[in-house]
Amino acid sequence: MGIWGSHLYSVQPEKLEELIQNSLRPYGECQKQIDDTVNAICAFLEETRQLPQVICVAKGGSYGRKTVLRGNSDGTIVIFVSDLERFQDQKKSQDEILSKIWQGLKTHQLTMKLEARMEIRKLHGRLIFQLSTKWQSITFEVLPAYNALGLSEKPSPQIYRELKRALDMTKALPGEFSVCFTELQQKFFHNRPRKLTDLILLVKYWYQQCQAKLKESPPLPKYALELLTVYAWEQGCGAENFDIVEGLRTVLGLIKQQEQLCVYWMVNYNFENETVRNILLSQLRSSRPVILDPADPTNNVGKDKACWQMLQQEAHIWLSCLSPNEPPGPSWNVLPAPLYATPGHLLDKFIKDFLQPDRNFLDQIATAVDIICRFLQKNCFPHSATRVQKTVKGGSTGKGTALKTGSDADLVVFPDSLKSYTSQKSERCSIIKEIRKQLEACQQEKKLEVKFEISKWKAPRVLSFSLKSRVLNERVDFDVLPAFNALGQLNSGSTPSPKVYAELIDLYKSSDAEGGEFSTCFTELQCNFVAFRPIKLKDLIRLVKHWYKQCERKLKQKGSLPPKYALELLTIYAWEQGSGAENFDTAEGFRTVLELVTKYQQLCVFWTVNYNFEDETVRNFLLTQIQRTRPVILDPADPTGDVGGGDRWCWHFLAKEATEWLSSFCFKDGTGYPVRSWKVPTVQTPGSCGCSHSEVIGSWIANARRNF
C-alpha cells in the first residue's frame, strides 16, 4: 500500500479535487478566526510602547504564503527591529528582544480579545505561540530580523552584495539570513490561482503522509515542495484552470528526477550584477537537487539528498497508483533543469534527454497523419467535383525538428479547385468550412473524435483541431491549411520554374498581398531545405527553438518576437558558413547563433537553392529584398517571405536575452573555459552565393553604397 494511510491511497484520481475541498482546505470560519487573531497580535507588536525598536511585522511560513493545510500547520511572525542594522547582526543573541516580546504578549494576551486560543512558550532561545480553533491549529515562531528591504518593494543588487559579505564575515550558512526576505517570499506566492494553491496543498499532504516513513532522515523544508510545484505549473501550464491530476503527475515526475533538479527564478535577482552572478553560478554548479529561494540566491532549499532519495521512491509508487495497470497518464512537459544551467559539454545529452521526440511520439504523428490524409482523400468533398491532389506534412514534424512537447502536426492540403494564388486567398475560407463540416459528420458517426479550436479571425487561413481515435494513445493537435498547388508535381532534386516565382512576385507587387502570404504553396521546398540536413544540425535547431520558447514565455507581454522559422534558418546559415561538418561542437554552434541574434541590425541572409538571379523579374525583386531594413532573412522557398522582417518584430528584446545568455553555463566547456564561436559573416551578397553576373553584383554594390 505504500507509506500513506489508506485514505490517500484509496482516492481515485478523479476524486482528488473533492479530497482537496473536503479535507485539505482550512475551514473558512477557522481561517478567519486565526487571521483576526494574527492581525491583532501584529498590530500590538507594531504599536506597543514596550517595543519601540519594532519597524514593521511580516507573516511568513505556510501561513504567510497562504498554503496552510487543514488541521496542523506552520507560520512565522517576523519582526523587523531597528537594533538589527546589518545582516551580520542576525548572529547576535536575540534573547533580550524575544524576552520583551514574550513579556508583552503574556501581559496583553487577555486584553487583546483574541478570536483564537493562544498558547505562548519560550524554549531553548526560541519564542513560539500556537493559535487554535475547533478544527485548525497553527504554530508560529517569532523571529526578529534586519529590515534589509527598508521601504523598497524590490531588492537592489547592493542588498545581495551586502548579504554575501555578511555570510563571508560571519561564516554563516548560505540561506541563514533568508528570514530578512520574508516579505519577498510572501509576495512570490500571492495572487497565484486558487487551483495552484490546491495543488500545493495536495503535494504537501502527500509529503505529510510520507513523513511517517522518513523519520530517520531530516525533514525536507515544505517550502522546497511549494516552490517545485509553482515551477511545474509555470513551466508546464500557466493557466488558472487545469487538470489537478496532470499537475500532480508533473510534480511527482520532477521528484523522480531529483538528481537533475535545478530550479531558480529571476524575479528579485538576475545575472546582471557581478556579485549576484557569481553567487548564482556557484549555486548552479553545485550538486543536484538545487531549488533556489526566489528571494535569497544563497538559499538552496532543496539540498537534502537523503530525503529526496526517499521521496523519489514514494513518488514512483504513487505515480503507479494514479494509473494502475495502464500507461502513465498525461502530465505537463516540464524539464527538471533549465538550459541556462547546462554546461556546454553536456548540451548533446540535454537534447537527447529532454528535446528529442521519442519513438512513440513519432509513431503517434505518423498514425494521426495517415488517418487525416485518408479522410481528406475519401471524405472531404463528397458533394462536389473537387479532389485533393496531394497532402504535405509541414511544420517541425515535416522538417524533422519536432520537440518533445506533445503531439502536433501541420498538413497542407492541395485541392484541385484552387487554380491560382488569388483563388487560394478568396476560396480557402470556404474549403476550411467544408473540411470542418465533414470532420463533424465523421465524429457523429463515431469514426473520429475531434475538438476544434475557435479561430479569432473572420476568414481563417487554418483549421486547428485535436484528434482522438481508437488507435491513438492520446490526442494529436492538427493545423490543416488549404493551398494552391503552385509547384505541380515536383520531382525529387528539381527546382521550380522561374515562372512560378515571377507570377508570385507580380501578384505581390500589384496587390495588397503580404510577404510570405502564399508560403504554404511551397511547403515541400521548406521541408526539403531542412529535412535532409545532418541529424546533429537538426538537434541544434531543436536547442535554438527550445531557447526561443523560453524567451517567448518571458517576453510575450512586451511585444511580438520574430517567428521561430527565422531562428531555424539562422541556425542553418550559421552551420553552413561556420562549420558544414556532420559532427560539430553543439555549444560552438549555439553560441554562434546567439551572437548572430545580437547582431540582428546587420543581418542579410538568403539562399539561391530554389530561385536565383538568372531570371530578370526574380533578379530585380531579390536585389530590392536584400536592400530592405535589417534584419533580412529570406525564406529559401519563397522570395517574398522576409522572416527577418526589418522593424516588424521586436528583435531587440531577443537580442538582449541572447546577450545575457552568452554568460551562461552553456558556453563553458568541461574545464570551465569559454566556448568559442564560429566565424560567420552577418551579410550575404550575390557574389558570396556564387552569382558571377557582373550586372547583378554591380547593381548590388551601387545600392549598398547608397545605403551607407
From TrEMBL:
SUPFAM superfamilies: Nucleotidyltransferase (SSF81301), PAP/OAS1 substrate-binding domain (SSF81631). It is an enzyme of class 2 (transferase). GO terms for cellular component: cytosol; membrane; nucleoplasm. Residues 372-450 form the Polymerase nucleotidyl transferase domain. The keyword 4Fe-4S does not apply. Residues 154-336, 495-681 form the 2'-5'-oligoadenylate synthetase domain. The keyword RNA-binding applies. Its cofactor is Mg(2+). It holds the Pfam family OAS1_C. It catalyses: 3 ATP = 5'-triphosphoadenylyl-(2'->5')-adenylyl-(2'->5')-adenosine + 2 diphosphate. It is found in: Cytoplasm. Gene3D superfamilies: 2'-5'-oligoadenylate synthetase 1, domain 2, Beta Polymerase, domain 2. GO terms for biological process: defense response to virus; innate immune response; negative regulation of viral genome replication. Keywords: Antiviral defense, Cytoplasm, Immunity, Innate immunity, RNA-binding. One of its GO terms (molecular function) is 2'-5'-oligoadenylate synthetase activity. Its EC number is 2.7.7.84. Belongs to the 2-5A synthase family. This is 2'-5' oligoadenylate synthase.
